[in-house]
Structures are given as structure tokens and as C-alpha cells.
UniProtKB/TrEMBL annotation:
Pfam families to which the protein is assigned, alphabetical: TIMP
Cystine crosslinks: C17-C79, C19-C106
Keywords: Disulfide bond, Metal-binding, Secreted, Signal, Zinc
GO biological process: negative regulation of membrane protein ectodomain proteolysis
Main location: secreted
UniProt-annotated binding residues for Zn(2+): C17
Gene Ontology cellular-component terms listed: extracellular matrix; extracellular space
Gene3D superfamilies per UniProt: 2.40.50.120
Domain NTR: 17-140
Protein name, UniProt field: NTR domain-containing protein
Signal peptide: 1-19
UniProt-annotated location(s): Secreted
Length: 140
């Protein structure tokens, strides 16, 4: 019985999302898009494998093009983000994959309360990070 419990826990741990701890520079340079966004909608993809968030861009810090939505895996085990709230503003770093913005918990800015686990609530973004994004972005 103990062997089964150990096996189950081992499988659960191995299936969990794992990320390399980010730095401001690695997050900035890895992202194709960074913006202050307000979430306007949240829905599941037809096959339920993704959550699709609609957003209104408040300010763009990095990226080309105009975007109004991004997708993320629907499960935390695959690094999905399911905790964003409609009406709330976030600092969103995202990658562009096949013309679709994608975000996950591994692409985030490291701050004291967040440790780089996806988009930050805008009100929790430290002024030092805002200054970096607006005045002195990393050279990639």
C-alpha cells in the first residue's frame, strides 16, 4: 500500500509544471509581447485544452501587431493560467506561436509576491519594474 502511495505522489510531482526561475531580463527577452492589459473575457477552447482570455490593451511595452486575446493551457500541470479575473489589469508577458499569443506560468516577472508565475496583477507591479519597462528595457 505504501508503495502505491509513493508511486502516486511521484507521478503527480513528475506531471507538475516546472519552470526555470526567471529574471527580469530573461522574461523580457523571451517574451514576444509585453503589455498592461485589462481582461475582458474568459472561455474554454472547443476541445477544452486551452483557456482563451480576451483583453483590452492599456499600454504596450514590447511587441508588434494588435492583439485582443491570448491562450493558455487549461490545466496547471501544463503551466496554464486559470486565475485571471475579468475586469482586472495585469502585466502580461506572452509568446507568439503560429500568430497566436500564448502565456503560461513560466513566463513571468520575478517580484517578491509572484516569483515569476505568469501575469502580475498591475497593482502589484513594483515601480522599479515599471521604470525598467518604460525607460530602460533590457538589451536582448
Amino acid at each position: 500500500m505504501k508503495s502505491l502511495i509513493v508511486l502516486a505522489v511521484s507521478i503527480a510531482i513528475s506531471l507538475a509544471c516546472r519552470c526555470i526561475p526567471p529574471t527580469t531580463e530573461t522574461t523580457y527577452c523571451s517574451a514576444d509581447y509585453i503589455g498592461r492589459v485589462k481582461i475582458t473575457s474568459m472561455k474554454s477552447s472547443e476541445d477544452k485544452s486551452y483557456i482563451i482570455y480576451g483583453f483590452k490593451e492599456v499600454k504596450k511595452y514590447k511587441g508588434n501587431g494588435t492583439y485582443t486575446k491570448f491562450q493558455t493551457p487549461s490545466h496547471s500541470a501544463t503551466c496554464g493560467i486559470s486565475s485571471l479575473k475579468v475586469g482586472q489589469e495585469y502585466l502580461l508577458p506572452a509568446k507568439l506561436q503560429k500568430a497566436v499569443l500564448t502565456a503560461n506560468t513560466c513566463l513571468g516577472f520575478p517580484v517578491e509576491d509572484n516569483h515569476g508565475v505568469g501575469p502580475l496583477e498591475w497593482e502589484k507591479v513594483p515601480q522599479t519594474l515599471k521604470d525598467v519597462l518604460e525607460k530602460n528595457p533590457p538589451k536582448c
